[in-house]
Automatic annotation (TrEMBL):
Taxonomic lineage: Eukaryota, Viridiplantae, Streptophyta, Embryophyta, Tracheophyta
Gene3D superfamilies: Vaccinia Virus protein VP39
InterPro entries according to UniProt: Methyltransf_16, SAM-dependent_MTases_sf
Lineage top rank: taxon: Eukaryota
The protein's name in its UniProt record: FAM86 N-terminal domain-containing protein
């Protein structure tokens, strides 16, 4: 009986991986590979029906182009192994083919699509949750861009953002009841995860107004209320714990930034452009090291003051893929010049379990996690 239950749980997990990969719009080859594994190596009627039903739902959600690609790949794979393709699969693919030109034109006009990122929690250790299936996952719908090479990078989902989100969800005790400030928030995924683990305050920022607008839409899709700095009237009280701010690093004033006084600063894939480093690090210094006036009128850094009072100083967690060694070394040099300390925490604090096991396009091993603090 125990073996039967274990096999049933494994089967459910594999089906969940297929669905999650599809909803995240993973490469169709990855979805097909997961589906083949799920069905014991061949495309059974049940797995074909599963993929067909998800494709129908995807088309209804505006992701018809992706659904068409997957159906084409499924039909080719089944025919190659001399199997029988379900009539519904053929009919759905034919429907997409008949509307292909209209869909292609729509994609050219609107390059935004919806991906559903599913974080799958194992039933072990700190992830132990009730047996209800819905409690085993967090599904985050995100509107994002397919056009990341033409000025829409902020609306794309980057590996470091996925890593930082896994980090937040894996170590909720670091963020619960803390004031958190993210630089370069992009689609808002990390902020949504911070809200999920009950951060006291979540301040999301980006220097691009179009990216900021897309981020706000994603917060709404995930049922999160937020304060909009651009619409807020002077003196108006804050009623929500999520706030969106337009913050170009090059024009942000030190006094403006230091007013936020976060406990934790976060950043995903912000170490990429050497010309931005002085501005980014100036912002980090303002967030991490704030002046506090002594009784005698002189100033000391608040890091020292808060430590004396028993409070931990602010810390920044930065996740990044090191794509160019020279660029990263230039960043390290500036960190030192700014009198900041940086520590590689990748091995010490990497998430103990993969919360995105179905996502073959995401190579977690290439992402590094750093902490940055004032000396």
């Amino acid at each position: 009986m125990a073996a039967a239950n274990e096999n049933s749980t494994e089967s459910e997990s594999q089906y969940l991986h297929v669905l999650s990969a599809f909803l995240a719009m993973e490469p169709v080859d990855s979805v097909i590979a997961l589906a083949r594994k799920c069905s014991g190596g061949s495309f059974t009627e049940s797995i074909q029906r599963l993929l067909w039903e998800t494709c129908v739902q995807a088309a209804a959600n505006g992701n018809a182009i992706y659904a068409k690609k997957l159906l084409k790949k499924l039909i080719n794979e089944v025919e190659l192994e001399k199997g029988e393709v379900l009539d519904e699969v053929y009919e759905e693919y034919a429907l997409h083919m008949s509307t292909a030109s209209k869909e292609d034109a729509l994609v050219k006009e609107n390059i935004r699509i919806t991906k559903f990122i599913s974080f799958l929690f194992p039933e072990v250790g700190l992830y132990k949750r009730p047996s209800c299936p819905s409690s085993r996952k967090l599904v985050v719908p995100l509107q994002c861009s397919l056009n990341m090479l033409e000025g829409d990078t902020g609306c794309s989902i980057w590996p470091s953002s996925l890593f930082l989100s896994e980090f937040v969800l894996s170590y909720p005790e670091l963020f619960t009841d803390k004031s958190c400030f993210e630089v370069g928030s992009g689609v808002g995924l990390v902020g949504i995860c911070l809200a999920h683990v009950k951060a006291k305050k979540v301040i999301l920022t980006d220097g691009d107004l179009l990216t900021l607008s897309n981020m706000k839409l994603n917060l709404e899709r995930n049922h999160l209320n937020y304060d909009d700095e651009l619409l807020k009237q002077p003196g108006e009280a804050e009623n929500t714990r999520v706030k969106c701010i337009h913050l170009p690093w090059e024009t942000a004033s030190d006094s403006e930034v230091s007013e936020y006084r976060p406990d934790i600063v976060l950043g995903a894939d912000v170490i990429y452009d050497p010309s931005c480093f002085p501005h980014l690090l100036r912002v980090l210094v303002a967030l991490l090291r704030r002046p506090t006036k002594r009784d005698n009128g002189s100033f000391e850094t608040e890091d020292r003051a808060t430590t004396l009072q028993g409070r931990s100083p602010a810390v920044a967690y930065i996740a990044s893929v090191i794509r160019n060694a020279d660029t990263f070394n230039a960043f390290l040099t500036l960190v030192d010049q700014m009198d900041l300390s940086i520590t590689d925490l990748t091995e010490e604090l990497k998430p103990p379990y993969e919360l995105l096991p179905y996502m073959h396009s995401y190579d977690r091993s290439k992402v590094r996690l750093f902490s940055i603090s004032s000396r």
